[in-house]
Fold this protein.
Amino acid sequence: MGKTVFHSPPRSKKDWKKLIIHLLLILSICLIGFPLYYGFVVSTQSMEESIQKPQKLMPSNHLIENYTKVWKRIQMGQLLLNSLIVALGVSLGKIAISILSAFAIVYFNFRGKQLAFWAIFITLMLPVPVRIISTYQVVSYLGWINTYAGLTIPLIASATATFLFRQFYLTIPDELVDAAKIDGSGPLRFLWSILLPNSGANMAALFVVMFIYGWNQYLWPLMITSSDKMKVVVVGIASTVPTGTQLPEWNLVMAAAMMALLPPVLVVVLMQRWFVHGLIESEK
């Protein structure tokens, strides 16, 4: 009897396409993940190890020492608390204001309705750095220097969030609005009982984006705070890098950066499912 020879089927064009996509994804993960890994490695090294050439790419045994030292040196706990308050205030404030403004634009008929919407949308062309001097003058006049109100309130208006909620509300069937009117629901009852429960995924997606936006703020907190007790973590990390001839302690800088990275990463990981679902819902 002759031997039976099994030939593997030739790869189809679809298989090659999947292979290329997976290779590109792996390459992207490596490009994004390597700087984070390198920062963690440096945060575990001594100062001598962090500046030696060639650089070691394996963690050392100074992790607890470096993290403890930088925690005490720059009052890391207070910095993280301030950044958390600012990030939560900015994200929740943006969502609340955007929901109300989008609700008014979609469900109320008034003169200048479209003009109001485009006036909000045009503010995308005026980010905080462009209007920072005038905003600082207003905040200073109100006495909000070195306060949480001064750190958060100028940042909570969001044309992007208003636009996303408007687009979502436009997908709500008119029959649902008519049914609510027949049941005697007023505008606020309709908003609270129908729109908000259906906007959960959108609010979660926006919360993740706006939380990271508030957490990463640097220029505005740098201008509006002069007290060490009111500094945010990004400003605190920048202060660990000396501006003179002193050699930077990169191991401590990276240790502070790793600690500052944990809260936003935790938010993204915990809300990843809602975040993706909210983005899909926004595109419908």
User: Anything to note?
Assistant: The first helix runs from residue 13 to 43. Residues 67-282 form a domain with the MetI-like fold fold (CATH 1.10.3720.10). The chain has a mean pLDDT of 84. DSSP finds 15 helices and no strands in the chain.
